[in-house]
Design brief:
InterPro entries: Papain-like_cys_pep_sf, Peptidase_C19_UCH, Ub_carboxyl-term_hydrolase, UBA, UBA-like_sf, Ubiquitinyl_hydrolase, UBP13_Znf-UBP_var, USP. The protein has about 800 residues and is α+β, with helices and mostly antiparallel strands. Among the domains are: about 80 residues, Zinc/RING finger domain, C3HC4 (zinc finger) (Herpes Virus-1, 2-Layer Sandwich); about 120 residues, 2-Layer Sandwich (Herpes Virus-1); about 60 residues, Helicase, Ruva Protein, domain 3 (Orthogonal Bundle). Helices cover about 30% and strands about 20% of the residues. The strands form 6 sheets. Strands 11, 15, 19, 20, 21, 22, 23 and 24 form an 8-stranded mixed sheet that branches. A 5-stranded antiparallel sheet has the order 5-4-6-7-8, covered by helices on one side. It has a 4-stranded antiparallel sheet with strand order 10-9-14-13, with no helix packed on it. The longest helix is centred in the last third of the chain and has 19 residues.
Length: about 800
């Protein structure tokens, strides 16, 4: 009741011992089945005055069959003396006011996610009794055009008469002539759905009468009236399935293994994650990450140490939040099978009660996504981009000398040959995943694809049912060959010519990582710059051998380009600033770093670009990258003497930072021991104010000899690194790998759709679909988006 931080039962004692805070408020929501009436039904609903907390409720239990009761009391440590709330007789007025304020406060997530909570879409008042004309209109799955003009985008389907008309620009910030609105004004038909947004999860619905986006709880029924199946998107001319044609099997069904009875899995490592609204990309990546032993050891294995040395506000500490999430996924405490009595009750009632609730990653998502314009939103995101973002956070927040993301690091050798001089340049860069192109030209079923495309176009032109979907079948070997093929470079800086020239670039592995992450480059842009996705099936191997892609270095007969750097071009208005101001590496603008990293540049190079351009934004940093990308140390970590070695490590909140000596002296001048000052500063990332809070919150301070020795060793290592900078941290070895996890995407682009993850555990494949964790029967390994391979020991 002093810091207003909340702790579970197993951690509240640790917080009490660490801080001396003794007064806590205990909060719990009880869930019970409602008492049944004589007829067997639930008793009539009445206002429940026992609910006073603004908490999330389980959607699966949010029905008339359950009731809730909130409990609140004060607990005084260390004697665990309890005072039930409200209790104005025993408590001082100030304490009563504080308790009432807590109990009546809004959920913090309403403040963090206003788009999700405060702006929830209302249900349209026209949805329940919407009139739909029986006019025989059937809508094809593509090829739409406005009925009053030639526009083929920003089209809206009127749910009363099936008219397809264009919207106005303010509907979704795209162009239109407003014919959908004119149609409403002429005929008064109130609801329309935007074509192109329809997925199994819903669609964008607009109410012209209510003048706002709305929810239509009967959308599936209303779309089916015009021959649109929300799951399959396969309309038929008469609204009935043609018995002579096969149903169109979508990737949604295949990837989620729909139609297969999946057995739920329980226990350690089989805990799901609740979907917070388009957070499946985060859930899938974190499930894969915490299936890797190095991450398990770094965070969950260090749980007591990380929690004990976390800052006073652990909600703002990356390592604490990673450990908390990892413990939730791996402990098994939140994934327990139903009791035998519960199973018998479900069979008797013929109403299976959901058992897998999963854990909510709200606090973790709030921390890792803050200050990031995309991940902090509630829109769908690219799992590959989030993976790189997470690696960046792990790099910046190392725990001691351990960095679990090193298992993904590898060196890429890039060879560029000047087309004019035929001379070559070899450079190395750090990367964390292998991006594999889709070799569409190598499809093994080209004739089938051509026939399908011709039939599809004819069906769209004549508004007939679409043919059964044909997916391109691509050999993995063709994609691997496309990865190693030469690439033309138009703006290559040829030091021999002292000018830009055309070149040919090839890339190979200078080292092989311990864990290889392979991304299939399924997403691209059409000629109209609309994001598109290749609908392909690739026979990804269980065993992968890439030893033939090992870099070979300078070959006999090759002549290297002279090592002459191109001139540095800096905007005139920035020169004075750059000359007179160097930023602290810990103040690097991470949003600019991520913008550059998402363009495909190495993470370390992006950090250097932002640093050396003085935090002037991604555009100026991009110019720096273009000028320096041919330098041998382009992708090596930023090293600045005076900042404790590598800057990316110096910006971390780990335990190996070397605090500034003047700050140490300032604390020791107050009467504290030097080791105590060092320990406090390292635990708080050398923040003086937080370090003093840390010291005062550890009155029982005793020198942990092992901890102090490790910190001193790390400090010495930093001094050594200043004298002799280390090369990029890689764990080279054999290029033989086996598949152990893959993430799949359903939908037309990374901005929409859904992600699930399959992981091989204990010899069998398991599907992680948000909070649901089940044994997989048919893992769709050919439809994945990101694949995780582990090295096979040689």
């Amino acid at each position: 009741m002093n810091t207003f931080l909340a702790f579970g039962r197993e951690h509240v004692e640790r917080h009490f011992r660490k801080t001396g805070q003794s007064v806590y408020m205990y909060l719990k929501r009880h869930v019970r089945e409602k008492v049944r009436g004589a007829s067997g039904g639930a008793l009539p609903k009445r206002r429940n005055s026992k609910i006073f907390l603004d908490l999330d409720t389980d959607d699966d239990l949010n029905s008339d069959d359950y009731e809730y009761e909130d409990e609140a009391k004060l607990v005084i440590f260390p004697d665990h003396y309890e005072i039930a709330l409200p209790n104005i007789e025993e408590l001082p007025a100030l304490v009563t006011i504080a308790c009432d304020a807590v109990l009546s406060s809004k959920s913090p997530y309403r403040k963090q996610d206003p788009d999700t909570w405060e702006n929830e879409l209302p249900v349209s008042k026209y949805a329940n009794n919407l009139t739909q004309l029986d006019n025989g209109v059937r809508i094809p799955p593509s090829g739409w055009k406005c009925a009053r003009c030639d526009l083929r985008e920003n089209l809206w389907l009127n749910l009363t008469d099936g008219s397809v008309l264009c919207g106005k620009w303010f509907f979704d910030s795209s162009g239109g002539n407003g014919h959908a609105l004119e149609h409403y004004r002429d005929l008064g038909y109130p609801l329309a759905v935007k074509l192109g947004t329809i997925t199994p999860d819903g669609a964008d619905v607009y109410s012209f009468q209510e003048e706002e986006p709305v929810l239509d709880p009967h959308l599936a029924k209303h779309l089916a009236h015009f021959g649109i199946d929300m799951l399959h998107m396969h309309g038929t001319e008469n609204g009935l399935q043609d018995n002579d044609s096969k149903p169109r099997i979508s990737e949604w069904e295949v990837i989620q293994e729909t139609g297969t009875k999946l057995k739920p899995m329980y226990g350690p490592g089989y805990t799901g994650l609740k979907n917070l609204g388009n957070s499946c990309y985060l859930s899938s990546v974190m499930q894969a990450i915490f299936s890797i032993p190095e991450f398990q050891r770094a965070y969950v294995g260090n749980l007591p140490r990380i929690f004990d040395y976390s800052p006073l506000d652990p909600t703002q500490d990356f390592n604490t939040q990673m450990t908390k999430l990892g413990h939730g996924l791996l402990s098994g405490q939140y994934s327990k099978p139903p009791m035998k009595s519960e199973l018998i009750e479900q069979v008797m009632k013929e109403e299976p009660k959901p058992q897998q609730n999963g854990i909510s990653p709200r606090m973790f998502k709030a921390f890792v996504s803050r200050s990031h314009p995309e991940f902090s939103s509630n829109r769908q995101q690219d799992a590959q981009e989030f993976f790189l973002h997470l690696v960046n956070l792990v790099e910046r927040n190392r725990i001691g000398s351990e960095n679990p993301s090193d298992v993904f690091r590898f060196l890429v050798e890039e060879r560029i040959q000047c087309c004019q001089t035929r001379k070559v340049r070899y450079t190395e860069r750090v990367d964390y995943l292998m991006q594999l192109p889709v070799a569409m030209e190598a499809a093994t079923n080209k004739d089938e694809l051509i026939a399908y495309e011709l039939t599809r176009r004819e069906a769209e032109a004549n508004r007939r049912p679409l043919p059964e979907l044909v997916r391109a079948k691509i050999p993995f070997s063709a994609c691997l060959q496309a990865f190693s093929e030469p690439e033309n470079v138009d703006d290559f800086w040829s030091s021999a010519l002292q000018a830009k020239s055309a070149g040919v670039k090839t890339s190979r592995f200078a080292s092989f990582p311990e864990y290889l992450v392979v991304q299939i480059k399924k997403f691209t842009f059409g000629l109209d710059w609309v994001p598109k996705k290749f609908d392909v099936s690739i026979d990804m191997p269980d065993l992968l051998d890439i030893n033939h892609l090992r870099a070979r270095g300078l070959q006999p007969g090759e002549e290297e380009l002279p090592d002459i750097s191109p001139p540095v071009i800096i905007p005139d208005d920035s020169k004075d600033r750059l000359m007179n101001q160097l930023i602290d590496p810990s103040d690097i603008d991470e949003s600019s770093v991520m913008q550059l990293a998402e363009m495909g540049f190495p993470l370390e190079a992006c950090r250097k670009a932002v640093y050396f351009t003085g935090n002037m934004g991604a555009e100026v940093a991009f110019n720096w990258i273009i000028v320096h990308m041919e330098e041998p140390d382009f992708a090596e970590p930023l090293t600045m003497p005076g900042y404790g070695g590598v800057a990316s490590a110096g910006a971390s909140a780990g335990l190996d930072n070397q605090p500034p000596e003047e700050t140490v002296a300032l604390i020791t001048s107050m009467g504290f021991h030097r080791n105590q000052a060092l320990q406090a500063l390292r635990a708080t990332n050398s923040n003086l104010e937080r370090a003093l809070d840390w010291i005062f919150s550890h009155p029982e301070f005793e020198e942990d000899s092992d901890f102090v020795i490790e910190m001193e060793n790390n400090a010495n290592a930093n001094i050594i690194s200043e004298a002799k900078p280390e090369g990029p941290r890689v764990k080279d070895g054999s290029g033989m790998y086996e598949l152990f996890a893959f993430i799949s995407h359903m939908g037309t682009s990374t901005m929409s759709g859904h992600y699930v993850c399959h992981i091989k555990k204990e010899g069998r494949w398991v599907i992680y679909n948000d909070h649901k964790v089940c044994a997989s029967e048919r893992p769709p390994k050919d439809l994945g988006y990101m694949y995780f391979y582990r090295r096979i020991p040689s």
